[in-house]
């Protein structure tokens, strides 16, 4: 467990980098009766009221889980990838089992109770040549649809998780006059990334309360209407969410293309019709000829803005996606006198939230947004419950992994997990098979949420011992 605590501190420091001031904050007056918190100006993402897609079993946490930090044999652990901006980011593949129960000498896992998590060591945005790994395969990040979701008149208490956007809140402690003027919340994403406690940017609706003018740090913000010992009521509370993403399995071209040039790829061709440079960027006229589908004429605009690729509005003027074909302008002065610097991606796939991943039956995709709406992970989870009998092996994620229930004796269960014809050591557990395999931010978020200091004192938990 010494290794887990050391890594927990490292992961917590990394996640703290999420609390960045993206631009000059727009501080509202203390007495202003605003519905929305004082978001950054400009706001990079659409703001919507209401709900967001929910993950089955979103509020479940692993119950006294086994932690195997070496991960599933053959899965990616700490693989480094350098994007076109020169930033190197380690990548991890994680397996989590939660909500499992022993019933009638078998083990059941609810929907959303077992998931693969692609977990980069920091946030990702498009237009940087970023890539991630899903089920062992590299995917290039083409574009996504992030948004800010807020709810009105929302209660956050100490016993339940409250979902806003794709984030979960719970009260750690109410306000303490002259000590901690604002309530302290714990926060986590659906896959587990968290800081405990989390400094949600909060202000009071009434001007007489303390800390009415905090500087906005992220898009996780709230306006407090009242607070008691057991709960806090928010006039509004916000979170981030992602509705869909586009990923490509091929980067067919990256570099300078000339005016009049035609670039041929397996998914179609792209012709550079005209390039018009300008003092404030410029435009490029393209014709896309997909191998399947209609011909499209598009004009992409170079946007010389320091907010790229943060801004959804600016980014979408620089990206054209047509089925499996995508053209993306380089975000640092793409348009020149007679050339344009761009990417052309092939085999582009649209991944919708809560929809099947790559056609895998009963395995759905769920993207994870950080507090400033960057992509920080992608889950592939079971959309239906799983039931295992002793001696049974079941394939996971299209046979990228296997789960084997060896035996059940009362409340004692033996199981193992494997891939690529290699298995973990036999795992002994009491009451369930909840477990976490791998490293990464989500794993350490789960550790911090569960309070890892007690794991080695719990007789129901057997940590994996390697030979």
How would you summarize this macromolecular structure in one to three sentences?
The chain is 6% helix and 48% strand. With 467 residues, the protein is mainly β.
CATH fold topology of the domain at 246-348: Tick-borne Encephalitis virus Glycoprotein, domain 1
| Helix percent band | under 10%
Q: Indicate the proportion of strand residues.
A: over 45%
Shape: flat
- On the 0 to 100 scale, the average pLDDT is 86
Q: What can be said about the biggest beta sheet?
A: 9 strands, mixed
Rg measurement, Å: 24 Å
**Assigned CATH class of the domain at 246-348:** Mainly Beta
Distance between the termini: 16 Å
Kindly describe this structure:
The longest helix is centred in the N-terminal third of the chain and has 15 residues, at 2-16. With 467 residues, the chain is mainly β. The chain is built from three helices and 33 strands. It has a domain at 246-348: Tick-borne Encephalitis virus Glycoprotein, domain 1 (Sandwich). Helix 1 (2-16) crosses helix 3.
Q: Any descriptors?
A:
single chain; 467 residues; Tick-borne Encephalitis virus Glycoprotein, domain 1; nine-stranded mixed β-sheet; eight-stranded mixed β-sheet; 33 strands; disordered N terminus
Topology readout:
Layout: H1 2-16, E1 47-49, E2 66-68, E3 77-82, E4 88-97, E5 101-103, E6 106-109, E7 114-120, E8 131-134, E9 137-157, E10 162-164, E11 167-173, E12 184-189, E13 194-198, E14 201-204, E15 221-227, E16 231-258, E17 262-265, E18 268-278, E19 281-290, E20 296-302, H2 312-316, E21 319-322, E22 325-329, E23 339-352, E24 355-356, E25 363-369, E26 375-382, E27 386-388, E28 393-396, E29 401-409, E30 412-419, E31 422-423, E32 427-430, E33 435-437, H3 441-450
